[in-house]
């Protein structure tokens, strides 16, 4: 049974609603030796969802080295126990240096991790282009797997 465009769009909206207000996500990258490495990341999503996740990082961070060495496949997981909702996202990471996007996503609470602010030359954005996502919504007793999110968001094709 195939999913209709409307159902797929509702699933994407549900995914965004779950992750939008989660304060921290866990980002998993692949180390140079092939092992997995996870770390918490401050969740800074835009106000609308276009099949991408955004995180601030330092260019000098180890995760950036992992992404630049061709291990750009990553996983991002979100947990909202109070809402009984959980998300696992697979995607491709790349480093973005766009001052306009940095300013759009920035807020002063990030100074805890990036005290020099948005103008810091070591500050960059890590963009995760979503390939596949799963969410579990225990309150509604459903698990949903979404495929092809990158293609759908880039091409505007939500079929």
TrEMBL record:
It comes from Adineta steineri. This is General stress protein FMN-binding split barrel domain-containing protein. InterPro entries: Split_barrel_FMN-bd, Stress-Dev_Protein, YdaG_split_barrel_FMN-bd. Residues 11-156 form the General stress protein FMN-binding split barrel domain.
């Amino acid at each position: 049974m195939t999913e209709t465009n409307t159902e797929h769009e509702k699933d994407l909206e549900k995914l965004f609603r779950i992750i939008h207000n989660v304060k921290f996500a866990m980002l998993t990258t692949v180390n140079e030796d092939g092992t997995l490495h996870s770390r918490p990341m401050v969740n800074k999503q835009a106000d609308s969802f276009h099949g991408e996740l955004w995180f601030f990082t330092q260019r000098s961070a180890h995760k950036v080295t992992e992404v630049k060495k061709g291990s750009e496949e990553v996983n991002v997981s979100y947990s909202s126990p109070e809402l009984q909702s959980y998300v696992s996202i697979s995607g491709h990471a790349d480093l973005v240096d766009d001052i306009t996007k940095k300013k759009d996503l920035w807020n002063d609470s990030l100074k805890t991790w990036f005290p020099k602010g948005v103008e810091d030359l070591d500050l960059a954005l890590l963009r995760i282009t979503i390939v596949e996502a799963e969410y579990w919504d225990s309150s509604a007793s459903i698990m949903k797997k979404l495929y092809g999110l990158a293609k759908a968001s880039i091409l505007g094709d939500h079929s």
